[in-house]
C-alpha cells in the first residue's frame, strides 16, 4: 500500500470504494499544524471532479489501469463488440458504457481504459473526430454561407447532427464526437 508521498498526476486510486484518477495535487506544509496533501480527483465511472485533502502519511490504495486500443466490430444485443488490435482478443462493452453510440463506425479505433488486475473495462473513449457521409438532409441552398444557420442531417451511422445550409446529401463531413457538432466539409 502506498501513502500520500506517492501521489502524482494521473495516479489511479481506490477512494471511498470508487476508482478515481488524480488530476492535480499540492503538498502543503503550514507553519502551524501537520502537513497535508490537497488533491483534485476525477471519478472514473461518473467523470465528476472531487476536491479532497489527505493528511500527510495517509495510506492510499493504488489501482493499476491500462489504456488499450480496440477496433469496433459490430453490435450484439445490448453490447458492442471490440477487438484488441495487438492480440485480436474480443471484448463485449455494455451499451451504457458508450457515451455516444450513434458515432460508432465499423473498424473505428477507440481507446478503452481497463482495470489491469481484474481485466475489467472502465471507460470507452471515441476518437475526437470522425469523417462520415451525410445520408439525408434537406436540399442545400447555393451561396448561403454568410449566415450561421444550421439544419438537421442524418449521418451514415444513423445519428442526427446539425450542418450548415449549403451541405447536401452524399457529402462527406468531419464531426466532433465529444459535442456532436459539424466541424468542416471533407473532400474525398
Description:
The chain is mostly beta strands and 188 residues long. The protein has three domains: 2-62, Roll (SH3 type barrels), CATH 2.30.30.30; 65-125, OB fold (Dihydrolipoamide Acetyltransferase, E2P); 129-186, Beta Barrel (OB fold (Dihydrolipoamide Acetyltransferase, E2P)), CATH 2.40.50. Helix content is 0%, strand content 55%. It has no helices and 16 strands. The protein has strands at residues 2-3, 12-15, 18-28, 36-43, 49-55, 59-62, 65-76, 79-84, 90-94, 109-115, 120-125, 129-137, 150-155, 160-164, 172-176, 181-186. The strands form three sheets. The protein has a six-stranded antiparallel β-sheet with strand order 1-6-2-3-4-5, with no helix packed on it. The chain has a five-stranded antiparallel β-sheet with strand order 9-8-7-10-11, with no helix packed on it. The protein has a five-stranded antiparallel β-sheet with strand order 14-13-12-15-16, with no helix packed on it. It is elongated and about 70 Å long. It starts with a strand and ends with a strand. The mean pLDDT is 88.
Keywords:
188 residues; mainly beta; SH3 type barrels; OB fold (Dihydrolipoamide Acetyltransferase, E2P); 3 domains; six-stranded antiparallel beta sheet; five-stranded antiparallel beta sheet; elongated
Amino acid at each position: 500500500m502506498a501513502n500520500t508521498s506517492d501521489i502524482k498526476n494521473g495516479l489511479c486510486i481506490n477512494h471511498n470504494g470508487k476508482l478515481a484518477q488524480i488530476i492535480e495535487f499540492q503538498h502543503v506544509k503550514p507553519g502551524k499544524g501537520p502537513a497535508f496533501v490537497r488533491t483534485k480527483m476525477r471519478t472514473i465511472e461518473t467523470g465528476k471532479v472531487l476536491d479532497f485533502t489527505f493528511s500527510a502519511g495517509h495510506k492510499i490504495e493504488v489501482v493499476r489501469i491500462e489504456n488499450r486500443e480496440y477496433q469496433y466490430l459490430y453490435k450484439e444485443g445490448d453490447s458492442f463488440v471490440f477487438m484488441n488490435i495487438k492480440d485480436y482478443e474480443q471484448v463485449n462493452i455494455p451499451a451504457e458504457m458508450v457515451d455516444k453510440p450513434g458515432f460508432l463506425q465499423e473498424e473505428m479505433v477507440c481507446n478503452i481504459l481497463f482495470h489491469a488486475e481484474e481485466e475489467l473495462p472502465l471507460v470507452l473513449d471515441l476518437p475526437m473526430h470522425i469523417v462520415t457521409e451525410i445520408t439525408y438532409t434537406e436540399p442545400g441552398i447555393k451561396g448561403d454561407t454568410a449566415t450561421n444557420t444550421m439544419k438537421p442531417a442524418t449521418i451514415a451511422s444513423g445519428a442526427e447532427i446539425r450542418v450548415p445550409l449549403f451541405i447536401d446529401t452524399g457529402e462527406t463531413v468531419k464531426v466532433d464526437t465529444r459535442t456532436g457538432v459539424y466541424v468542416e466539409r471533407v473532400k474525398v
